[in-house]
Structure formats: structure tokens, C-alpha cells
Amino acid sequence: MAKKKKGITKANKTKLVKSVTALKDFVTKDSSLGGVTITNLYQVNNSANQVTFDLDFRNFGVSAVTKAELHDVNGTDVQLLNDVPGSLSNIPVGSNTLIDGKFLNIKSIVTASSQTPVPQNLNVSFSIDGGATTQAYPMPPAAFNNTGDSIVIDISIFFFHI
């Protein structure tokens, strides 16, 4: 019986290179408000299990509203959330096999209210679960300097399977 080779096969390497190329070619729109951007990858598996995400706004006294969509490079967008307020937990994106090769695009606007102590650094956690692993993504630094300041969070995650 022949031994099975370990490591990445040529076919899997080609898939991974295509996934990374698609991610690099993806353009994130700029915002006139102060903001942070996360652009990254998430590995899915070959199952029907649901992939979900959490987005937790941990600052005291802030308000947040979020939109999310699943984007196909062929131009098909599926709206997941539209102007949903507050922190989000266990939001379904789709099954592993369905979302392979697609982008999760999330845009949140977080605003400091009169109850928010300012200046204050933005404190947000973002994670995805249900694929190959649970993955937490670090949030780039941003700060509220005055009451009424808003920070735009743009998140783009490309789902891939090797």
C-alpha cells in the first residue's frame, strides 16, 4: 500500500493562491469618517455546518449600527443584516460549502454618545466560528476624541477551502 504524502498538494496550492489573489484584488471603499479596516481570510471546511460571526462593541455608552452582506465575485450579493443596532452574536453567514469563495462584508458605524467617556480608544471584538477553526481578528486602533465622534468599521473576510 502506497504511503499518503503529507503537505499541500499542487491542486490545493493553486486554490490557495487563487484565494489570496482574489483577496488582494478586493477593493475596500474609503470613508470620510474616521475608520478602521480589517481585510483577512477565513478557512471553511467541506461541510454543511453553519458559519457564524460575533461583533461585540465593548465601549460604555456608544451606539452602533451594522450592515452585512455575503458577496460573490460574480456580483451576487445576499444581504445578511441591514442597520441592526448594538452588538451582534451568533449571526449566521451560511454553510461552509455555500460560502466558499465568497466575501463577508460588514460595515458598522460606532458613535460616542453623551454617556461615553472621551477621549477613549475603540474596544471591539470580532470573531468567526463554524469553519476549520474559531478565529478572532484583532481590531486596528482608533479613538473617540469628542462626544458625537463616529468610527466606521469595515470588515472584509474571504472564505476559502483547501
Write a short abstract of this structure.
The protein is mainly beta. The protein has helices at 10-25, 96-99, and strands spanning 34-43, 50-57, 62-72, 77-85, 88-95, 102-112, 120-121, 124-129, 135-137, 143-144, 150-160. The chain is elongated and about 55 Å long.
Strand element count: 11
The major sheet is characterized as: 5 strands, mixed
List the helices and strands in order. Answer: HEEEEEHEEEEEE
Q: State the helix count.
A: 2
Sequence stretches where pLDDT stays below 50 over 5 or more residues: 23-32
Q: Termini, distance in Å? A: 25 Å
Structural class: mainly beta
Report the sheet-strand fraction. Answer: over 45%
The overall pLDDT average reads: 85
Shape: elongated
Estimate percent helicity. 10-25%
Strand order of the largest sheet: 1-11-6-3-4
Radius of gyration: 18 Å
Task: Characterise the protein shown here.
- The chain is mainly beta.
- The protein contains 2 helices and 11 strands, in the order αβββββαββββββ.
- It has helices at residues 10-25, 96-99; strands at 34-43, 50-57, 62-72, 77-85, 88-95, 102-112, 120-121, 124-129, 135-137, 143-144, 150-160.
- It has a 5-stranded mixed sheet with strand order 1-11-6-3-4, with helices on one face. It has a 4-stranded antiparallel sheet with strand order 5-2-8-9. It has a two-stranded antiparallel sheet with strand order 7-10.
- β8 and β9 (135-137) form a beta hairpin.
- The longest helix has 16 residues, at 10-25.
- The chain is elongated, with a radius of gyration of 18 Å.
- The two termini are 25 Å apart.
- The relative contact order is 0.30.
